[in-house]
Amino acid sequence: MALDISIVVPLYNEDESLPELMAWIDKVCVANSYAYEVIMIDDGSSDNSWEVVNDLAKNYTTVKGIKFQRNYGKSPALNEGFKAAQGNVVITMDADLQDSPDEIPELYNMIMSGEYDLVSGWKKVRYDNAVTKNIPSKLYNGVNRWISGIKLHDMNCGLKAYRKKVIKSIEVYGEMHRFIPVIAKQAGFGRIGEKVVQHRARKYGVSKFGWERFINGFLDLLSIQFITRFGKKPMHFFGLYGTLMFIIGFAITMYLIISKFFFEGSMINKPAFYIALTVMILGTQFFLTGFIAELISRSAADRNNYLIEERIGL
After folding, report:
1. Which of 76, 78, 255, 307 minimizes the number of CB atoms within 10 Å of its CB?
2. Do 85 and 12 share a domain, yes or no?
């Protein structure tokens, strides 16, 4: 039987919240007569999360699980969940109960309407600390909108819905889960929508993310933009700028040589000589970097291989 929904839940040390979350998801899906599955990916938890997932799988036939041998991060967890998902609509949510399963029906309907490839949640009202999370998050999302051109208020929201084809067409690695809308758009899925969703105060445990995620996130966004444009053709970037720099440096050098013969004077006493020499060296290095990157890109190994200790129902 075809599944209506796959709910992908990455988790790390969330043993207290999982039973309540699963009961809530089941209540919503049963009430709406959805054929569904819940794929829980344990990202190397050090608490009893995997034991809880095993217990839930015994009580709910819809629960499936993947356990990483160690902690890899949220992006690898989502990537493995996407590989396993079979539902026509795939919904991701965090395991800490800050995302409400009550949002599932509307997210599902928005995707099934055919209007959207991807719908991202927008936690318009948040219960996080204003100084350490809310204000930095607004700045962070503002920069994302400016660089990516995708007009989402909360790109990093864990509550999202996708057409199945989207998650089967993209790769999520490193810490790129923050920019799945950007990755999806670059893959040709430009119908991206937004839905205001409920943000609930954390009930159990503590946040697993700190200040560094904003800096890392900005760097990751730049990486996505570069890789999307030049990942398969790095020579087009490095070779272009390397060649331009070399030509500029060479032109300055030739000017200095001609000046020496016609106007006398020493070349090496002029700052322009050292500038030209530096530019030529940098240009050569850029060109060689592009050449080496081209070789690497043509022989890169799969970067999404993870040690999986155990699977449930998969």
Report:
1. 307
2. yes
